[in-house]
Q: What sequence folds into this?
């Protein structure tokens, strides 16, 4: 991910105008996430999604094919409401649809396009260095201090359903962590990885963050949530570009999600996980 791929180098030389058209195509696809997920304007939100894929196919066939994979995943996700739902039907719906949003682009890439652009690098063969280990501790401290202030202070915890029973608490734990793992599978290993075949690090990262943050907004991270989710999405993309390790970015994400879970439970039941010093409860 740290350098331009062979697919990009094999493409025709870019002119300034062609670069702009290619960026516009990707921006239309990724920007449609704002309409589909954040603003929730459907079917209008599908217009830039389709237009971006079509433009990509016209200006750069390889880019258009990869944008089609991203658009397919986004369209699958948009087939269900993303508000947190701990019912049996809600959990099943999330499991099926979110799984398909990753598996369908992967299968098309692997068996139709015959490439390995979408990979899930769990074992990289490289040990984590001291900086990576220290960063995990920073994540814990930052999450401990910031997340209660956000969820409780803004009232955003109310975007998750009330939890009254031990079974519902267990469902919340599984759901928060499962979606956290899926976030990295889709936004990093699918969206970001495909965009990196065609664009430099930061354009690709900003584009994937647009989709990531829009999804999280519909999921419940509203109010001033984007002040947290935007840098989080960008840092996760940057870390993956540096480490090329799905395992590491998932660990970072799950550390945050462990605190998210505890804060949500505490917000609904202040006597539980009463260990936070921020949040005003």
A:
């Amino acid at each position: 991910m740290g350098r331009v791929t062979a697919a990009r180098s094999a493409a025709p030389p870019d002119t300034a105008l062609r670069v702009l058209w290619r960026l516009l195509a990707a921006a239309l696809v990724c920007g449609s996430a704002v309409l589909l997920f954040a603003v929730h304007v459907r079917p209008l939100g599908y217009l830039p999604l389709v237009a971006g894929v079509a433009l990509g196919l016209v200006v750069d066939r390889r880019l258009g094919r990869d944008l089609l994979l991203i658009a397919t995943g986004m369209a699958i996700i948009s087939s269900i409401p993303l508000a947190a739902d701990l019912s049996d039907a809600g959990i099943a719906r999330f499991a099926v649809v979110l799984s398909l949003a990753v598996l369908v682009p992967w299968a098309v890439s692997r068996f139709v396009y015959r490439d390995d652009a979408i990979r899930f690098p769990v074992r990289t063969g490289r040990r984590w260095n001291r900086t990576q280990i220290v960063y995990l501790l920073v994540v814990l401290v930052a999450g401990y201090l910031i997340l209660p202030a956000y969820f409780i202070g803004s009232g955003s915890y109310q975007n998750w359903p009330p939890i009254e029973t031990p079974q519902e608490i267990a469902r919340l734990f599984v759901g928060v962590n499962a979606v956290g793992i899926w976030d990295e599978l889709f936004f990093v290993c699918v969206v970001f990885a495909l965009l990196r075949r065609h664009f430099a690090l930061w354009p690709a990262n900003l584009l994937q963050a647009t989709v990531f943050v829009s999804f999280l907004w519909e999921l419940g991270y509203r109010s001033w949530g984007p002040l947290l989710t935007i840098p989080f999405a960008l840092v996760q993309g940057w870390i993956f570009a540096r480490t090329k390790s799905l395992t590491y970015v998932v660990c970072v994400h799950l550390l945050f999600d462990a605190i998210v879970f505890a804060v949500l439970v505490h917000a609904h039941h202040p006597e539980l996980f009463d260990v936070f010093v921020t949040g005003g409860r």
In short: DSSP finds ten helices and no strands in the chain.
